[in-house]
Amino acid sequence: MLAGHAVALLCLTWGAYQSLAIPRVTECSLSCPQGFACKSLVSRGNIFNSFCQQPPASMPRSVLGALGLSTAMKCSPPDGCSLLLRVNASLTLHESLQGLEVCSTSLDTQETQCQTVQVPRASHRQAGQQLQVRFDCFKVGVAQSLYVTLRTVPHFCGVQLGQQYHTEDCREEDVGKNVPDCFAQKLSYWVDRSRKVILVQVPESGGPDYYVRLCLKRFICEDAGAPVRVIGNRVSRRVSLPYSQELSCLCLEVWSATPDAVRIQTCPFKNDTESLWDAIRYHPGSQALSWEPACPMRGRVSLCWQPGPGAHCLELKHSGRPARGRVQYPLVDTQPQLCLKVSGPDHNLPRALPGLAEGSEEPDKGPTALGQGTHGQMSPSALPSPRVQPPSSPSNPSWANSGGRGFVTNLRGPWRPA
């Protein structure tokens, strides 16, 4: 009896595992019910089917019954697996119908791929019967957003179905283990601060080639060096990428050498704040103070008054500016207690930087040789806020308490007028 329960539990467990795995297909195919001859035509979209015509009075608007979408996987060892979109459609046969057209549009690139199925004209005896059609040949990518439309051929006005669909990402176990686009997340990297290089290591398992590059994540990730191709089956799988400055928006971007591959990004210095203060400029002649960081930021900039080392910095009224683009303060009189503060959701460790405020200490930057990067935390890029030039008008500073946390630097030393 116990053995029977064990077998039943094993069967249930294996059945649950199979239901979670993405179905495999060996080749692209078109499936129609027995007795119907369907023919598939692949195209980028039929312009003549873009214009609709009025349906005959005998055709019901519900002639398209259903549209079902799912993901399938086609594997070709040793190159790995690719994802396919599986489309299940149903229609009611009508003597005016010649076929179906299914189009899949990427919401990211607006690229469209279509497939048309020709069906024989229905006889009076066949009219009204349900026909199930399945398409398996739409190539899709990992974590892709699609919009799928189903229309009749010819295209009758008002007779159309549409549905949005998102393919699985690398967090799905079956996809993460088998799709080459996800292998980039298994790459490891190290930051060699003494040589100012980032070392990238490719896993020793077989697989596709990769491209790696450094880029500055602004509105898009702009080139900060030429892409380097990493050959997957070579003995040496380490590449060295030099950088000039440790910027919070300096990112490592990796993608497989396959068409339309997903690009994975990680930013090794995203928590470093030293570069914030390299953007401060004081002009002794005009007494203007400007701040323009090399990386986009969220938050605000303000002037504040720090009575003593380690004391709370009191924000000056009317000095707050959005931390977007270039911020300028005219007629700034440098005083030992006058500071610049940057605060925001990404910056919550207030401190005075070394050499600019009394009592400050050199921050611990960690090891100066190899500091290993974080594995498996590369994520698709997120678009930063657009850069906006804030207004800069003179204001008479006054005292006010600051409730925000942020970074503070003293306006002495390099910014004291000669």
TrEMBL record:
Transmembrane segments: none annotated. InterPro entries: IL-17_rcpt-like (IPR039465), IL-17_rcpt_C/E_N (IPR027841). GO terms for molecular function: interleukin-17 receptor activity. Residues 342-418 are annotated as: Disordered. Pfam families: IL17_R_N (PF15037). Keywords: Signal. PANTHER family: INTERLEUKIN-17 RECEPTOR (PTHR15583), INTERLEUKIN-17 RECEPTOR E-LIKE-RELATED (PTHR15583:SF10). This is Interleukin 17 receptor E like. It comes from Bos indicus x Bos taurus (Hybrid cattle).
